[in-house]
Amino acid sequence: MTTLQIQKAELLNALHVPGSPLIVTNVWDAITARVVAQAPGVKALATASHSVSNARGLQDGEGLSVNEAIAAARLIIDAVDLPVSVDFEKGYAPDAAGVARNVRRLIEESGAVGINLEDSIGAPKAPQFDIPTAAARVSAARTAAEATGIPLVINARVDTLAGGGEWDEAVERANAYLDAGADVIFFLGLNDENKVKRALDEVNGRISVIGHPGAVPLARLAELGVSRVSFGPGSLGLTLAALQRSASQLTSLGDYPTDLAFPFALAP
Question: Nearest-CA neighbor of 1 among 72, 74, 59?
Fold first, then answer.
């Protein structure tokens, strides 16, 4: 499995191409992973911690224990052949040493080949770890990955703008995380084209953003040079909205929704 895991990690990294971004529709369990993986054009998957937690009746923000988070990741990864990046929140640890232990466990026990790592201390986007501490946590994740021999793709999240902070600090954090071993910067708060352009100019590496209604259109993000777009819990919201609409249609004795006959199967 190590050779295959290395190949998946290398593929995941190679798919982050400025101008031809990796589009990952976030999943939260085995069946959503399998269904999304079968969609034309899908090349890799990413989990969303919010969705994984909510599907279990828990709040986001490390509502799961580290054991539960690793088990959830393993179920998803075992269901598909594609590379999977895991939203690993803050590493489920208060310090860098704990992040290293848990990231190593995630790689070895689940087969993950990528992670998201947050820099906020709590569930809201503020406050954040100070920059040296946050960078040390990224470095710990990289050290753990190197110890396993898996070239883990680290998508380091910068929550500064989303938490009401200043631009210069956000950029400083992004570059510090890249220096610490991150492969991609998950830059939250780039809510217009000018901010996307500025981030691409000032951050010394690849940029990942979140897509949602009202955000910069996907085609334009590609033109600007973004390397990855994900949707976080939005894909769970999309699914739940469709389910709720269908439930209303059925209980009102309406027509059977066409998607009621959607073919799905967990087995290959």
Answer: 74
Domains by residue range for the chain, with CATH: 2-261 (3.20.20.60)
**pLDDT of 250 strictly over 90:** yes
| Structure-block tokens of residue 211 | 């897509």
pLDDT, mean of residues 243-247 = 96
CB 48 within 8 A of CB 236: yes
Q: Which amino acid is present at 242? A: A
Give the Cα separation of 227 and 185 in Å (integer): 10
